[in-house]
Each structure stands twice: as structure tokens, then as C-alpha cells.
Amino acid sequence: MKLIEAAGFPPGVVNILTGYGAEVGTPLVEHPLVAKVAFTGSDTTGQKIYETAARGLKRVSMELGGKSPNIVFDDAHLDNAVKGVISGIFAATGQTCIAGSRLLVQQSIHDQFVDKLVAFAKTARMGDPMSLDTQVGPVTNRPQFDKILRYLDIAKGEGAKTLLGGAKATRPECGNGWFVEPTIFGGVSNAMRIAQEEVFGPVLSVIPFKDEEEAIAIGNDVVFGLAAGVWTQNMRRAFLMSEKLQAGTVWVNTYRAVSYMSPFGGCKRSGLGRESGQEMIYEYLQTKSVWISTATEVPNPFILR
Questions:
Q1: Measured distance CA(163)–CA(207) in Å, rounded
Q2: CB-based contacts of 86: which residues, under 8 Å, 6+ apart?
Q3: What count of other Cβ atoms lies within 10 Å of the Cβ of residue 247?
Q4: Coil, strand or helix at 85
Q5: Interatomic CA distance for residues 31 and 37, integer angstroms
Q6: Of 4, 47, 103, 279, which sits 20 to 30 A from 173 (CA to CA)?
Q7: Is the pLDDT reported for residue 133 higher than 90?
Q8: Interior/surface letters 62-96, b for 16+ CB within 10 angstroms, e for the rest
Q9: Gyration radius from the chain CA atoms
Q10: Bridge partners of 256?
């Protein structure tokens, strides 16, 4: 709060309330003086907030979960794509809504690309998140740590093949912290839970595809629609994929690029409304029509004109 006031906001303009949903969240959403609700979090919690806000006909904007596809075609610059895929899933230990947690690789380069990917992922340095040398840090809390480990077991039970990681990190530099090894699963079908549900951790599912049509079908075959990545040197394909993928943001030959000038948000269960850009400002405005007559005399209403 001190920093907020130092930035020039008068006292009371920004208020911070902490607590669990039943204690703080629900009363805040239900309060009659709250006209607009903006929420960032899981789709399950977002749905509950949406339902609560609807009872008061309140406006909402929501940035929720994701299960974003990162799609690599056989004409891509493979080394660049490897770096983009790694950044898309292992940055922030996979704890980002835009994580590219589904890697779609064209069949003709599948084995070659996966070999490059696994080799590069093995170089990730884990350890103290406060150290500048650390590239993959711990999971944020114990419940999330346990959830990720459960999903690793689910994936293995579904028949996914562990290509890298797949367990709690036991490296000396990780100590007893909540560290999960950077994990890559192969042999994944898009129908598996590991491909459909948001893990929110350093877990990547590799799914092969044949052509553009199948890549689009697989990419859109989830309840989420937050982001997507496309790696290709074919401009026609880049525009086609950008148009057809059901995602609020599509990156071509890059991943995780964001700016406060560019609108950000999702579709389907990834939310509604937009953050950043001019579109965000519109979320907080109400359109009003005002009619003013300058006539010196109001006409007789019983005479048809």
C-alpha cells in the first residue's frame, strides 16, 4: 500500500483485502456497491464468481485457465522452436495460464524434434528461485505440488511414456523443497486427462499430427482457449493457423510475448473480456445515449408526421 500511495494514488482508491473465498470473495462479489468484477484464476473458481455476479446482473471480466497448444510444423526453424517450446512450458515452473502445455509436432519431424527437445530440457538448472542461475524453481505451495505429482501418476496410468522427469526432483540443489522435475510425456493422445486438464506445473505432453487440418482440430479440442503458438516459415500457414485456432492470443515463431498495449484474454473456459490495451478500458466503461432538443416548441403529439 505504501508503494501504491507513493505512485500517486490517493489513500482509499486502492484497497487490498486478503482471505478465502467464503470470507472475502463471495461478500465482495455480492455487495450491491460493487458494479464490476475482474478475476484472474482457475476456471472452476471463475465459474462460481460468474454465477454469483449474475444474480446481481454485474459485469465481469475473467482471465482463467489454459491448455495451450504449441504447434511445430516440419518447415519450422527447429532449434528456435525447441527454445520456444521450453520457454512456453518451463518458464515460472509451468505455473502460468498461458503455458504451452500441449506440444503438437508434425509427424515427419516428430522423433528428430523430440530428441532435440529432451536434450535441451535436460540442461535446465534447478534450485533457489532467488538465484540468478536458477532456470526452474519450486512449485508455489504444497497443495499444488501434490496436485502435480498426482497428474504425473495419472499420465503414466493413461499410458503416456515418460521421456524426461516424471517425478519429484531429488537433486541436491533442490533440498526438501517443492520441486518437480521438468517433465515431458510422449505417446499422448489428446483425449487423455494429461492433455485436457490444466496441471499448472512443468509438465509437457507431446502429441503428433499429420497436417494443418489435424493440427487445428487437436489444438481446438479442449475446453480452454487462452493462447497458442505456431512455428512455421510459411506465411500462408501462419495466417491460416492464426485465424482458425480458438485462442485469445496466437504467437507465430515466438511464445509468451506480451505488452500492456496488446489486449490479452481468452475464449471458452479461458474466460471473457480483455486485459491490457484499449479493449481493457472499455470493460470498465458504460455507454450512455443523451438526446437534447434545441427546438423552441414541442410539436403536437396527436398530429402524425
A1: 13
A2: 117, 120, 121, 124
A3: 25
A4: helix
A5: 11
A6: 103
A7: yes
A8: bbbbbbbbbbbbeebebeebbebbbbbbbbbbbbb
A9: 24
A10: none
Catalytic residue IDs:
63, 97
CA distance linking residue 215 with residue 209, whole number of Å: 6
| DSSP assigned state of 130 | T
Residue with cell 535446465: 124
Read off the C-alpha cell for 186: 510422449
The answer to pTM > 0.90 is yes
Q: How far apart are CA 255 and CA 100, in angstroms?
A: 8
Strand partners, 228: 250
pLDDT-derived band at 12 (thresholds 50, 70, 90) equals: confident
Q: Residue 129: what residue type?
A: P
Which of 244, 235, 247, 189 lies closest to 212, judged by CA?
A: 244
> SS3 sequence, 230-283?
EECCCHHHHHHHHHHCCCCEEEECCCCCCCCCCCECCEECCEECCECHHHHHHC
